[in-house]
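Entry type: protein chain
Record version: 2
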Amino acid sequence: SKSLIGVLDIYGFESFKYNSFEQFCINLTNEKLQQHFNQHVFKMEQEEYTKEEINWSYIEFVDNQDVLDMIEKKPLGIIALLDEACMFPKSTHETFASKLFQTFRNHKRFSKPKRSLTDFTISHYAGDVTYQADLFLDKNKDYVVAEHQALLGSSKCLFVAGLFPPAPEDSSKSSYKFSSIGTRFKQQLLSLMDTLNSTHPHYIRCVKPNQFNKPGRFENANVLQQLRCGGVL
């Protein structure tokens, strides 16, 4: 057994005028962490209230498991479909978007904007975000030359060697391997969640009162948006 005290700084939900693969990954992380927050703050606490026969009113909270399944689940989750598209040379962002529209056309959390052929909208816990699929395939690809991986992984500099650990599934003799950024990100996120689930979490909600870091200035609309994105309202 070991003792662990960790601090996880969450940047938060992202929704911009242009949202690409980076925002998709960040918002997946926030979906995961929001589910963890719900399970501990709402579900588990309310189960404890019931167990101790405390007089209380049930608090409704949104279960976002359907969004997580749509993104992560194999073989027809968004990440799995993206990986599949990346492994076919003739795939384009148009064919990838078309596959998404076909797969999730009846999903309540997925929609297609009327004026775009490749944009898609996901209804996250914090609100709708429209993603531009244009660069999803390019950003998800990470072709690594095996010899380069081995060379850098054997570096005498521990920092450099730590950046290039040997892949556990590295059984192929091919000099070039396709490695999906999305799948690796999902695996790292799963490892983070395993760590969080093995600890007793405490949450601190921070609200930024204004965009100028000035005292005595309170922007109502900005604060309201942060509370909504944080699942508080």
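Comment: The beta strands are 110-111, 119-124, 127-132, 141-145, 176-180.
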